[in-house]
Amino acid sequence: MTTTSKRMSVSLSRGLGLFDVTMIGVGAMIGAGIFGLTGIAAGKAGSGGLLLAFFLNGIVTSLTGLTYAELGAAIPEAGGGYIFVRRGMSRFWGFFAGWISWFSNSVACSLYSVIFGAFFVELLGMVGFHFSSEPVLFGLSGFQIAEKIVTLSVIALFTWINIRGATETGTVGNIITTFKIIVLLSLVVFGLIAMMNMPNWSINFQDPGPFPNGLSGVLLAMGLTFVAFEGYEIIAQSGEELVSPQKNVPRAIFLSIAITVAIYLLVAFVSIGALVQDSGLPNWMYLGQESEKAMIRTANAIMPYGALIMIIGGLASTTSALNATIYSSSRVSYAMGRGGDLPPLFGRVHRRNRTPYIAIFLSGVLIVFMATLLPIEDVAGGASLTFLILFLMANLSLIRLRKKEPNLHRAFRAPLVPWLPYLTVALQGLLAIMLFYLSWVAWLATVLWMSLGVMVFFRLGAREEAEKAADTILLEETIAKRRYSLLLPVASTPEARQLARLAAPLALQNEGEIFTLHVIKVPQQLGLSDGRDFLKYKRPLLEEVISIGKEYDVPVRTQLRLGRDIPQSIMSAAQERDADLILLGWPGHTESSGSAFGTIIDVISANPPCDLAVVRFVRGGPPKRILVPVVKNENTQLALWIALSQADFVNMKGDGGAQVVAVHFVPADTDEGTISTIWQELREELALLNVPIDLRVVRGMDDDLVENILMYSEDFDEIVIGAADEGLLEQTLFGSIPQRVAEHAVVNVIMVKRYSPLKHGILGRWFSRKNRSRRKGS
After folding, report:
1. How many whole angstroms separate alpha carbon 282 and alpha carbon 213?
2. Which long-range contacts (CB under 8 A, 24 or more apart) does 630-633 make?
3. How would you class 18 by CB atoms within 10 Å of its CB: exposed for 0-12, middle for 13-18, buried for 19 or more?
4. Distance (Å, rounded) from C-alpha 714 to C-alpha 716?
5. Averaged over 661-673, what is the pLDDT?
6. What is the mean pLDDT of residues 478-493?
7. On the CB side of 119, how many CA atoms lie within 13 Å of its CA?
8. Which helix (H) or strand (E) holds 194?
9. I need a surface site. Which of 159, 270, 369, 722 has the fewest CB within 10 A?
10. Does the predicted model carry a pTM greater than 0.70?
């Protein structure tokens, strides 16, 4: 007899690869900044100064990228600069970094919403909605009022979306990022073609010289546009969700910076060199005059339908950035609320949506305040200034951590520490000072916010951060790795009870274990580790399987897993545990449009990491008569193995009389000779199992195979059916035949699909050997 044991663990799902996280970084950097700030920056720096500003910002960004590459790989936790500063410096500076991070993300979101408003109202003008340029209310023109209304509306919309817990998927984000890149590269291509047809294009860079406002103009443009280069911080924040973060965090940071800087330089080059306009002003001055709409004017002059394409690109960019920055800013304030740095209400999570709704709402209020009261230059200046302060603190933390934690595993090491970080800090400090000349309002707002932060910190006190589920693995008893592991993903207590009573006999008959898994889906608005708050509600679900394991004397290992994507988390768990079979429940219907069984089953069955069984329960109790429709394929072998394991268990328990009937249907007009031949061929195919099987070849009463199976199954308790070898199997999943049987049968139906015969060796020989030894023992 075996001893029932259990081991409960908590796991985070890592689902982002190098491409995914690089696209996240590129998508964050190629955003509203390049669409809305290029013209303003050109007006500050001049033609050559714009190119130099983008290039130098790329260098400064890369220097800080070295810091984030080292710390992001060594400390792959959600939080980015907030976590680095808190760990490297003191609690006060950690609080300050979080306070600044919340503000900087909120101000950046204000910038994106303002640019969205400008682009959307421009689009309305293109389709015939025109607004007055004369003062209408509080000195604002009708045009400006329309922009404010759109800005407020889009902030409210995305705040509500984030409170509800909806975000764009990784696929949608990649599509939007790709679209933005295509729009900008199209502008570059058309611009270069236009310049090839302009023999005097170089004059656009010489009137009245490449640097009309000198070095100060370049520094002003750098400070203004620095916010457009900060998106790589999100890569470091994704560390806990990234596959191989030690390798992929540095790679993704440098890839995203290189791609972004190259595109920025090309766009700036053609915007100055290819633009033809009749204002009489130099191109750089004209772009500055057009402000946030400069890229629309440039695209309209360079390529067909350019204005419309650029507006759509800008809207797509700003909506994606709005969504990302709202939940990024709320994540920081939520974490600070949980840790005692902010009032506890910031740490409240909506019970149904599982989102930090108070933190999101208050972030939305802060975003509205900045977006409606300040002009775009002040908003952009404030965003850049706060990010400069945050990155400056992160660079200082790198120096401190080298001394404070010399033994910390660093898969990537930034060179020339501490001298290179000191140089970076000096450059960032210079840019921050120059921003005072661009927008003293941005400096005033930032100083007031920092002063408020000091008051909040000392008012609440430097309390220790609340424990975040200190034990990541809850160990009760350790069990040895079993030769057979049956993975049982469960979502509800009734489902867990039914599946466990089916899984236990299969595990027992194969000297295996039940590996019970529950995946808690964590919305994007929370970090994965923050999802630990939900664990306490799910332990009773796993305890149900443990109790049934004790009843059957089967070892049970349990795991609570935090993840973004439930099917991907299940497949990752199967691969990590080297599971032999996944057993899933299906209620017999789906609410997912366009899917056969529902999103989770559809995704897993399209490419299962091991053998797969999906069961629809209709009746309770152990099956006495089991029907297995057979054809010549490996799925049939798996179906027979599951059926025979159940029958053996029933007979072993002394209930007796359990029977497995294998049936193959042929057309009604099939002659006896053909039936005999088919029977013999199937008998030889099944001989490897070396167990008594009641094999029948039956003339169908209907032309529809499904109807034949349903009619024949009336005297049975269960149908076990293998996936059909139909065309486009991966699209039809289990195939239309098993699906229709499961939908209409009045008995339990188990649908099965083999992974690969190479995984387990030859199933027949293995199963035959196990059954011979079992019968000898009995």
Report:
1. 14
2. 630/662, 630/663, 630/664, 630/682, 630/686, 630/695, 631/664, 631/722, 631/725, 632/681, 632/682, 632/685, 633/722, 633/725
3. middle
4. 6
5. 87
6. 75
7. 28
8. helix 170-196
9. 369
10. no
